[in-house]
Amino acid sequence: MRHPVYKAVVVLFATAMLVGLLQLPPPGTAGAVHMHVSADYVAGGAEAGGASNLVTAVLLNYRGLDTFGEVMVIFSALIAVLLVRAVAAGPDEQPRSADRERLPVSPVVHYVVRVLAPFLAAFALFVMISGDVMPGGGFQGGVMLAAMMILLTLALGRGRVDGMIRGGARFWVRAAAPLAFLLVAAIGLAATGWWFGLPGPAPVRHALMVALEVAIGIGGAAVLTGIFLALSED
Amino acid sequence: MFCTGLYILLVRQNLVKKLIGLNIMETAVFAFIVTTGMVEGGDPPVLGAGTGPVFVSPLPHALVLTGIVVAVSMTALALALIVRIKREHGTIELDELIRARQ
Amino acid sequence: MVPLVFLLPLAAAALLPALFGARPRLAWYAALAVALATTVAAAVVAGALPAAGELRYAVGGWAAPLGIELRFDRIAAVTVAFGAVTALAITFSRTLTDSVPRPVLFYTLVLVNLGGLNGFALAADLFNLFVFMELLSVSAYALVAATRQPGAALAAIKYLLPGAVSSLLVLFAIGVLFALTGSLNMADVGARLAGVEAPAAVALALGALTVGFLVKAALFPLHFWLPDAHSAAPGPVSALLSALVVKVGVLGLLRTFELFGAAAGPGLLRLETLLTVLGAVAVVAGAVAAVVQHELKRMLAYSTVSNIGYIVLGLGLATTASVAGSIAHVFYHGLTKAGLFLAAAALVDRTGLHDIDDLRGLGHRMPWSATALSAGMIAVAGVPPTAGFVGKWQIALGALEGGRPLPVTVLLVTVVLGGALLALAYGIRVINALFFRAPTHHRVVAAREAPLSMLVPLVVLIGLALSAGLSGAAVIEFVRPVAEAFVGR
């Protein structure tokens, strides 16, 4: 009996959206209104932006604060998931033995995963570092790394993966992305007088951007893996 | 696409299905944003030999990348909550949950 | 200096689990220190505000519209209050460590929330606004569930789903605005919007932004997520939510109106009428719902719904007085409601009881907390010279101006007064139960007063709320230029 109201709401939305959207300037025309800001990004090129991948230039240089916000959001999501699960678990949780976590997997899966893992890791790292000259970048590589970690969980069992990073250091690695950003932001402040500014000389700037990408990648991977492990606890 | 997602979110009682509806809505908005940067005949916004001079706007791509990360964060948190709700109440159907509270 | 207002809490949040993972006590000190430092930073920047203007900061040295711009104006001065209330809420949380598992994570999220709030207030770039909004939303959703009380996770998901939809609407609107103007900087978009020839698209963006922010502000009828979330959350979190987070919707509306000023003309007028109507309905609906509640915190949550109604009503009336009153009420309601929720949390925490009827007679066992709660209820109703009065009086004045047909004006004034009287009604009901009835529950008899760490923050907040008559004129004067700009656009 609530359905008619919902249907009406959805139809209303759809009509409003269609009418409004039809009036937008048709996508595609070069030099059109939506290139207003982007034209300057393109014109500035790799020298001004610091990377030939303009998307990376936008993410790390022109709009670095947005990317900082983004890494804080995913970090907060990890903290949030941990906190939410902590309540569900209750105060008398027994620590799990590594054996219990092992899913029975076929030896083929086990073997394949172990062989593939280093290649996955290498590829992920490659994607992270070359994000400034080709499509790719920190987060993309991080996701690949996290996928590899999840595969390892299947093959080796949670206990091994969980123990890969010592308990005390865990939150440092997870916070790697926001902390790296803050460090770069502070360096920028010292070098250029503005928070999040990237210093002038091209090699320095390039090095900083690559370092950021790697930090975002590894930090992101740690966060995603952490979320996976927390959600898959029984 | 947006409205399909909205419909699912509103009508389906299962919390996970609602979450999927939300994800569909999010994807719709991301796709929309990327198309706003389209330039006819433009290359992907990576400078280098053999590309250009007309490029697609890099700005929407950056926005959507950030948006995807945010959406993933929300989904993760929502899933954690749903798991806990299942633990605490035994069901993840919204109408059953509301009835149980009264 | 300007970015520190949000960089401090966010940096601390990133570091807190790494540095203090196993030591909740130290984490508490650190979190409190950071919240205080943030408040001081915000105050320093606010103090440096030029007479009628604002401070702009180009992040990374990239000037808008190429880069992201921050803007500290009179509206952003609310970040001082954000920091102060958060600091007081953290102080209050000191002894809650038994009911909150993993307190270090709790404090981390509280700091993220503060960073998000402050960043939101400072944003002059649409997408940046969105990012900070999500930051404060994620932390808020999780904090609601940060307690062992059953039903908290359900309340949190009921908060998350509409919240995520409303965020999505805002993002969608940003996409439309980008397609229309090619820019994300608010001032730039506003200027370019005037030259755009696509009224339906502009209306779509305006509508999406408004609906999105109204959900976040919990304006009736989009308030349905609030009573559960604000009552199921742990005490200090309820204080943060009702006092601060819900105001994000209001701030968003203010920024939206700023943005569309030149462009939307008749659309805005219709919007104002809509806001006036919805606001008035919310005032009454919220107050009536509050009167019939049995649970203390739920009653306070409906009181928030009613007060948001006042604020939106003031915006809809669109006169200098009413808008100034609305913004002032954002501040004063924040103080008062935070104090109320902390006091309620103290009572609930010490007795384990939630129902007003169960709490009978508690006033004599927990004199400080109960008196504070009672005083706060008087303040939120708006008895002069307390906090509620400042804003509501200005809004009432605004209703009298504005040249509307007489029956409408009479109706509006009745609503304003009626809401206040109803608030007084539920306030008196609480006071009566606490002080003038015999205890009916054994836990009330056994209860003892809350510890200092709880008492100090709530006494401070309620004290500020009661003495608002002293600061009221100054606050109204401070926000007057904002109101004038709003009306005159």
Fraction of helical residues of chain C? over 70%
Q: Kindly report the spatial arrangement of strands forming the biggest sheet of chain C.
A: 1-2
How would a textbook summarize the main sheet of chain C? 2 strands, antiparallel
Tally of helical runs of chain B: 4
Structure classification of chain B: mainly alpha
Number of helices of chain C: 20
Shape by Cα distribution of chain C: globular
Largest sheet of chain B: none
Please explain how this structure is put together.
The complex is a heterotrimer of chains A (234), B (102) and C (489). Chain A is mainly alpha-helical and 234 residues long. Chain A has helices spanning 3-22, 38-49, 54-62, 64-89, 107-129, 138-156, 158-162, 167-174, 176-192, 202-231. In chain A, helix 5 (107-129) packs antiparallel against helix 10. Chain A is globular and about 60 Å long. Chain A starts with a helix and ends with a helix. Residues 91-101 of chain A have low confidence and may be disordered. With 102 residues, chain B is mainly α. Chain B starts with a helix and ends with a helix. Chain C is an all-alpha fold and 489 residues long. Chain C is 75% helix and 2% strand. Chain C has 20 helices and 2 strands. Chain C has helices at 4-20, 24-47, 78-92, 103-122, 126-144, 152-181, 186-193, 199-217, 226-232, 235-245, 247-264, 266-291, 296-317, 320-351, 367-381, 387-400, 406-436, 442-446, 452-466, 468-488; strands at residues 55-58, 69-72. A two-stranded antiparallel sheet of chain C has the order 1-2. The longest helix of chain C is centred in the last third of the chain and has 32 residues, at 320-351. Chain C is globular. At the A-C interface, helix 1, helix 2, helix 4, helix 8 and helix 9 of A face helix 1, helix 4, helix 5, helix 6 and helix 8 of C.
